[in-house]
Amino acid sequence: MMSDTLEKNWQILVNTALLGTERQPLPLPEPTDGLSSSLHKLAGLPAEKQNLLAAALLGACRKAALGVGVRDPLDQPPSPAPAEPLAVCSPQAAACLSRILGNKWQQLLMEYLQLLQDHRQLAPTRMLPELLDQGRKNLEVRTALMKVIGERGRWLAMMNPAWDYAASGGAAAEQAWQTGKKAARLQALTEIRTLDPARGRALLEEAWKSEGAVERASLLGALEEGLNPEDEAFLEAALDDRSMEVRAIAADLLTRLPESALVGRMQERGLALLKFQPGFLLVKPSLEVILPKDVDDAMARDGIKKGGGKKAEKSERLAYIIQSIPPRFWNQTWKASPRQILEAAKDSDWFELLGGAWTIAAAVNKDVEWLEELLGHFPSGAIFNQLPDERRELYLLGWLNTKNYVMAWKVLADIKKPLGYEASAAVFDQLWNLYVVAQSTTHSEWEANSEVYHLCYYLHPRVVERKDRLTGVKNASSSHWEGLTEKVVDLLSFRQEMWTAVISTSK
Amino acid sequence: MNWTREQVLAQAPDDRSVKAAEPLARTGKWRTLAHNERAVWGEIQGSGKDPYRVVIDLAEGVAYNCSCPSPKFPCKHSLALFLLLAGQPGSFDTPEAPAWVSEWLAKRDARSKKQQEKAAAAVVAAEKPAGETAPAQPNKRQLERHARVLAGMDELEKWMGDLMRQGLASTQTGGWNPPAGRMIDAQAPGLARRLNDMNSTPFSGEGWQTRLVEQLGDLQLIISAYRRLDSLPPEIQASVRSQVGFNQTQEEALAQPPFSDTWLALGQSLEFEDQVMVQRTWLWGQKEARPGLILAFSAAGQPFNQPVIPGIEVDAEMVFYPAALPLRLMPKKINETRPLGAFAPCFSIDENLQAWRRALTSEPWLNRFPFCVADARLMPVKDAWFVLDARDQVLPVVRNFAYPWQWLAISGGQSVPVFGEWDGREFMPLSLWWQDHLVIFSRQAGA
């Protein structure tokens, strides 16, 4: 520690320097030790000179006397992070992440995190701070992140309030639910629902009475996450809520629970609206549609909109009722297959509307048979994306093999899930033909380029080994095509590198 | 040798160059990729008719050559080639070097031979006034500058005296600019820089009064020492002169005895001084067991000439610039470059501070000193960070240290050897040793 006399003399000097020697010259100490005798020697010089020389002398002594600080017993270093059960990814995979975070490949962050999770690897420890920062901004990233930050990530998050979302399973979310603002509470409730749906519902029920109508509506929407039959009683009660918006949301959620009483009531109503005639000999099967009449209180309670006798409003009611009914109900009721039913409905004026409503219902109920039949009549990415991978790829290969690029592009333009290698290779080999279709369906070359490029996020990256197929395309003279293929190869090469870096080390 | 991506990225002049180089760092982009014991080269199609030819000489440090017209140095092609070498060394062939490679290398050899001869001549010249006799007679220009500096110091002392009479409380914003400008005229840029720095001291937070008096004391000490320069030993003369702002010439350094050693490059810091970026690369001489640093300067975004980068070790002959406490090094001959195989020996905080105090007794103006702290842990205290060692002693970390979370993430709270710079008040961590590797604190999203 610094000697007391040195520090005392220094303080006197600093005060004199601040006030100015005109007001107060530096008092020189009596020569009792080495330091004071050195200062004493300044006697006789002009006062300002004394100050400057004392600053030189004492300053040098102070620097050299600087002592070491000792930890205050109240300050504690962080206790070491717990051991990690999973392995951290390879340095190659870490290098890929550094390029993703470096912006150029930002779009691949989710795929990267998913890859790590699939191969039970953890994100590189060194980059955890940057990842945790990313998670603050984006809920989707945050959810994926939780699976790959490991013990080390949670340990870090516990020390930094900015990352408390990642601190420990749901504790931070519960805190945010109790004390946070509107948006933070909604996010917290959604997060709690992903971890523990019953806990989330219980928290909402607890707070229900004290929330305003707007809050009730927005918070109720969070039950979509982790929706399950145990939610029915609460939702059924919410059908009697004072707020119309709350009632509508509750009804909508109940339609997604096929066993709910509301769906049963919808089935009753549906029976009165659709009449099916099976075919017989030369008579084609047919479907008669009867538009719903007035809306009674019970119907309104189930979310069917009141008022208006116009056709548009009536058809809206029809769609709402049909989309609330699991399609399998019609098979059982009419003892007919989806194919037969769709054949019967094909000639009806209402076919488009019914198709849309059935698609929603089939998707909610994950009814593959219906989805496939509907895909035949209404080819769209929306239906295609709902199919199991195997079926999806079978259809795609079928269209590509028969050069039905229009059909293939229709579903690929809207793709949401990655394709396996075989289907990817088939798509990749026909990229030029698909590009031609894309150009004819979009407004600009630029748009076609970006849609085809986007598709390549969903291809198996190993197809890049077939990149010669792109350059070998005949008649492909467009300069846009050249630029596009270069970008596509770039993207696929990087994804391939990323996959290899993760997969090769997981074996 | 094996290069890491990190080492390569450290060579980039800016982030944009890295971004531009990244897509080119694929084997498919290159027509040829080859290397021999000394260099790597490759050909890549650019926007021109002929492919660009890129060579990297790895014999002594790293030197680049590319036929592209880019003003950036190293250019994106050179960086891409280097990145490929770091990432996929297996994709390089080993043919005979073509003429365009061997010619450039030969030109480099010729140039470095000329430099060595020049240096040798300087050594001979410096050694001429044989033995103990008085140093060479200063020439007329030196005498004129000496007189100008002394005259400037007279004025400065008078100005400082006025300030002391009126009190520091009377200083105004920017009040240090006029004397600083005067010191430039007096050819004492070292003093000018100190005066410029003092402008910001009153805004540096609690305790600024103490810091300002310290700075005045340092100035006074330099002035007093310079006035009696002739009575000081030559190495202290050298220190005082460099504080005043006399540049030390390479010839002065080359006249010093060379040290052949394995030099470990442990860390690098950057600072903006007088519109010039100053880069300090800290080394540790393994045999000599002493630290050193290589200073590099860059104005207006020009690249640093950096013969040694952190994370490598070099077998090299180096000389210290003369000083009371020799620290600044000049590489004379670099024989071999390898990835860093070991860290420098580490000590407790107390022992590091003792070394600092010893250093101050020879060089009282010292403001940067390397610390190697053993068993270091990072500890948060309120909104600041401290380094804590095994003896429960602490060292305050500089406020603008950007990577405390990176340190914690890597170490998981375990004790690690850490290297950094001490400025007399605070510690700037620069690197740590983790699982037999040097980890340099840096932004990770490099590309």
What are the SSEs and their pairings?
The complex is a heterodimer of chains A (507) and B (447).
Chain A: H1 4-19, H2 34-40, H3 47-65, E1 69-70, E2 87-88, H4 91-101, H5 109-118, E3 121-122, H6 128-137, H7 139-145, H8 150-159, H9 171-179, H10 182-195, H11 197-208, H12 213-221, H13 232-238, H14 244-255, H15 261-271, E4 274-277, E5 286-289, H16 297-301, H17 311-323, H18 328-334, H19 338-345, H20 351-364, H21 368-377, H22 381-384, H23 389-401, H24 405-412, H25 421-429, H26 431-441, H27 445-455, H28 468-471, H29 479-506
Parallel strand pairs in A: 2-3
Antiparallel strand pairs in A: 4-5
Chain B: H1 5-9, H2 15-21, E1 30-35, E2 39-44, E3 52-57, E4 63-66, H3 76-87, H4 99-127, H5 140-166, H6 177-185, H7 189-198, H8 208-227, H9 234-244, H10 250-254, E5 259-273, E6 276-285, E7 290-299, E8 312-320, E9 329-339, H11 349-362, E10 369-381, E11 384-388, E12 393-396, H12 404-411, E13 416-422, E14 427-434, E15 437-440
Antiparallel strand pairs in B: 1-2, 2-3, 3-4, 5-6, 5-8, 6-7, 8-9, 10-11, 10-13, 11-12, 13-14, 14-15
Helix pairs in contact in B: 2-3, 5-6, 5-8, 6-7, 8-9
Would you mind describing this structure in some detail?
The complex is a heterodimer of chains A (507) and B (447). Chain A has four domains: 62 residues, no CATH class; 82 residues, no CATH class; 99 residues, no CATH class; 121 residues, no CATH class. In chain A, a hairpin with an 8-residue loop joins strand 4 and strand 5. Chain A has 507 residues and is an all-alpha fold. A two-stranded parallel sheet of chain A has the order 2-3. Chain A has a two-stranded antiparallel ribbon with strand order 4-5. Chain A has 29 helices and five strands. Chain B is of the alpha+beta class and 447 residues long. Chain B has four domains: 97 residues, no CATH class; 105 residues; 83 residues, OB fold (Dihydrolipoamide Acetyltransferase, E2P), CATH 2.40.50; 92 residues. Helices cover 35% and strands 26% of the residues of chain B. Chain B has a six-stranded antiparallel sheet. In chain B, a hairpin with a 2-residue loop joins strand 10 and strand 11. Chain B is globular, with a radius of gyration of 24 Å. In chain B, 40% of the residues are buried. About 2% of the residues of chain B have low confidence. Chains A and B meet through helix 1, helix 3, strand 1, helix 4 and helix 6 of A and helix 5, helix 8, helix 11, strand 10 and strand 12 of B.
